[in-house]
């Protein structure tokens, strides 16, 4: 293609008025060896576009999700939470009951000990009574 | 839509989806994830695909939206995309890039363009879509597409000329 023609196309190209076909012509021209020296900066540009078009997606595309199904995971998590809260509550109740039981037992223990003290005192009194009876004669009945 | 039929309609443009995603997201890994994600979405919506005139254009719009969302969330979480890992090892592309330094310069110049210009230049100059196709994909007027494209092309050219002259003097 003539140089004048190329220059004209480039002008249009910069104003974004070229068609796809005309741009292809430009690409072909700049991929060739005899590019005019004053147009060399365009060579890098068109060269880059052509090179970039060769880039490929090399991985395989998967259509089925590999990701963990978060919906089911959340259901499972909430079940675990519920169960643990429930057992925790039960455990707590049990501990509370044990505490109350221990307290009651202690209270009973204290009561028993004090009652025994009273008994001892009464026993002493009894003793006193016996001795008194020995010393003083019992009035005959 | 059956799987074989689905694959026949959507697979031909998987490279285009990947390249457009990579243009916007820069990193190859991100672009691969985006492509994978996009095909999930297409597969999930396969019953609705018949309603679209061009599934390819629809897929491109989805790609654009997905990538813009990704970029937004990246910015929000203050994570910067790594702008240097576009070079892949052992691909023919890489070797050719190394051969021609000014070609990789073009890559950098495009990278510095605003998102919309990047996208338009990718869709037109690499993927060779018609203006009204691009307009539909991006939900723009064809004239707006032309204006954006012209701006992008002129910027790249200007920068290249600057670099070129700098190299000479």
TrEMBL record, chain A:
It comes from the Bacteria. This is Uncharacterized protein.
From TrEMBL, chain B:
NCBIfam families: sigma70-ECF. InterPro entries: RNA_pol_sigma-70-like, RNA_pol_sigma-70_dom, RNA_pol_sigma70_r2, RNA_pol_sigma70_r4_t2, RNA_pol_sigma_r2, RNA_pol_sigma_r3/r4-like, WH-like_DNA-bd_sf. This is RNA polymerase sigma factor. Residues 106-155 form the RNA polymerase sigma factor 70 region 4 type domain. It comes from the Bacteria. One of its GO terms (biological process) is DNA-templated transcription initiation. It comes from Gramella jeungdoensis. Residues 12-75 form the RNA polymerase sigma-70 region domain. Keywords: DNA-binding, Sigma factor, Transcription, Transcription regulation.
């Amino acid at each position: 293609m003539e140089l004048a023609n190329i220059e004209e196309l480039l002008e249009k190209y910069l104003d974004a008025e070229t068609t796809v076909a005309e741009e292809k012509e430009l690409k072909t021209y700049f991929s060739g060896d005899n590019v005019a020296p004053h147009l060399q900066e365009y060579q890098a540009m068109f060269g880059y576009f052509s090179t970039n078009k060769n880039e490929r997606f090399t991985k395989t595309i998967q259509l089925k999700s590999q990701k963990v199904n978060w919906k089911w995971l959340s259901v499972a998590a909430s079940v675990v939470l519920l169960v643990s809260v429930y057992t925790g509550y039960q455990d707590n109740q049990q501990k509370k009951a044990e505490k109350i039981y221990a307290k009651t037992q202690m209270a009973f223990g204290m009561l028993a000990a004090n009652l025994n003290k009273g008994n001892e005192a009464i026993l002493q009194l009894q003793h006193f009574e016996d001795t008194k009876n020995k010393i003083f004669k019992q009035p005959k009945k | 839509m059956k799987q074989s039929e689905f694959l026949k309609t959507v697979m031909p443009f998987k490279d285009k989806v990947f390249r457009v995603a990579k243009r916007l997201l820069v990193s190859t890994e991100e672009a691969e994830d985006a492509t994978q994600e996009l095909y999930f979405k297409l597969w999930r919506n396969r019953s609705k695909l018949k309603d679209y005139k061009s599934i390819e254009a629809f897929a491109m719009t989805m790609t654009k939206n997905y990538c813009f969302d990704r970029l937004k969330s990246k910015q929000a979480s203050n994570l910067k995309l790594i702008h240097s890992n576009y070079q892949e090892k052992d691909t023919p592309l890489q070797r050719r890039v190394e051969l021609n330094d000014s070609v990789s310069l073009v890559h950098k110049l495009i990278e510095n363009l605003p998102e919309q210009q990047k996208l338009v230049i990718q869709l037109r100059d690499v993927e060779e879509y018609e203006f009204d196709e691009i307009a539909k994909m991006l939900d723009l007027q064809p004239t707006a597409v032309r204006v954006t494209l012209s701006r992008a092309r002129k910027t790249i050219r200007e920068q290249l000329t600057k670099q070129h002259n700098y190299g000479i003097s």
